[in-house]
């Protein structure tokens, strides 16, 4: 019974797009896929634990290669025709999908070993250490895509922009240097003047025998009076 894909399932394996899960076994998972031509396929993929076991991985790859050799000898009459396979770190094999018929789960049977390899069975079945791992083995990511090649037009525009920026930088540097050379160095400012206030002048007192001028209407008359001189001399009686 097909079930939807779950988190961790690869979206595609090789040229096949995975659509649903058909079977989940102890050694691997079987998916329903679609080829580039629209053909339905059955794809078997080992679990992560089984893919890390070299012995289990070799059994799976050997069974897929044996079926591929038989299909080449018998042509299209073979029971399982291997359409594509990968024997790398995450091995998988794809065969045509037949509803209700044998599918890619046949290649998962040799991976599990039951009983004893030699002699009679005297103990329990062999249980691999990776039996509890049910996550699918994911192929290694491919190499990163090469960087996109720039067109001639893009290269020309980038070169023109770079040349414009360089020209602007040269012009700005030249203007800055020319301005520094033409501007005179700033002169040292003079110190501010210091004003010391002085007291106002004091009028001198008149000497003996001198008369201070007195204002009059007709003019200014200076009279000198000597000591012992009568001021009434020369006046009319």
Describe this protein with a few key phrases:
single chain, 237 residues, alpha+beta, 6-stranded antiparallel β-sheet, 3 helices, 24% helix
Overall shape: it is rod-shaped
Provide a count of the helices.
3
Residue-averaged pLDDT: 79
Uncertain parts: 218-222
Estimated share of beta-strand residues: 5-15%
Share in helix = 10-25%
Note the main sheet. 6 strands, antiparallel
Widest sheet, order of strands: 1-2-3-4-6-5
| Strand segment count | 6
Distance between the ends: 170 Å
Would you tell me the structural class of the helices and strands?
alpha+beta
Topology order in helix (H) and strand (E) letters: EEEEHHEEH
Instruction: Please give the radius of gyration in angstroms.
Output: 59 Å
In short, what is this structure?
The protein contains 3 helices and 6 strands. It has 237 residues and is α+β, with helices and mostly antiparallel strands.
Note down, in words, how this protein is organized.
By secondary structure, this protein is of the alpha+beta class. The chain is rod-shaped. 19% of the residues are buried. The chain has a six-stranded antiparallel beta sheet. Strand 2 and strand 3 form a beta hairpin. It contains three helices and six strands, in the order ββββααββα.
Write the SSE topology.
Blueprint: E1 12-13, E2 16-24, E3 28-34, E4 40-46, H1 48-52, H2 54-74, E5 84-86, E6 92-96, H3 152-182
Antiparallel strand pairs: 1-2, 2-3, 3-4, 4-6, 5-6
């Amino acid at each position: 019974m097909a079930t939807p894909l779950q988190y961790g399932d690869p979206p595609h394996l090789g040229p096949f797009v995975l659509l649903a899960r058909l079977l989940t076994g102890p050694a691997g998972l079987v998916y329903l896929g679609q080829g580039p031509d629209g053909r339905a396929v059955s794809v078997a993929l080992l679990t992560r634990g089984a893919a890390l076991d070299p012995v289990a991985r070799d059994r799976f790859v050997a069974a897929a290669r044996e079926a591929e050799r038989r299909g080449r000898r018998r042509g299209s009459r073979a029971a399982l025709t291997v359409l594509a396979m990968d024997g790398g770190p995450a091995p998988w094999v794809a065969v045509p999908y037949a509803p209700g018929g044998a599918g890619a789960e046949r290649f998962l049977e040799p991976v599990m070993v039951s009983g004893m390899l030699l002699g009679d069975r005297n103990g329990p079945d062999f249980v691999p250490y990776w039996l509890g791992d049910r996550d699918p083995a994911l192929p290694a990511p491919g190499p990163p895509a090469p960087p996109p090649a720039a067109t001639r037009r893009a290269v020309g525009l980038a070169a023109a922009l770079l040349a414009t920026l360089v020209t602007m930088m040269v012009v700005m540097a030249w203007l800055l240097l020319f301005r520094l050379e033409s501007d005179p160095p700033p002169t040292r400012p003079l110190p501010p003047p210091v004003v010391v206030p002085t007291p106002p002048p004091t009028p001198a007192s008149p000497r003996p025998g001198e008369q201070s001028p007195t204002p009059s209407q007709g003019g200014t008359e200076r009279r000198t009076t000597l000591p012992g001189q009568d001021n009434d001399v020369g006046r009319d009686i």
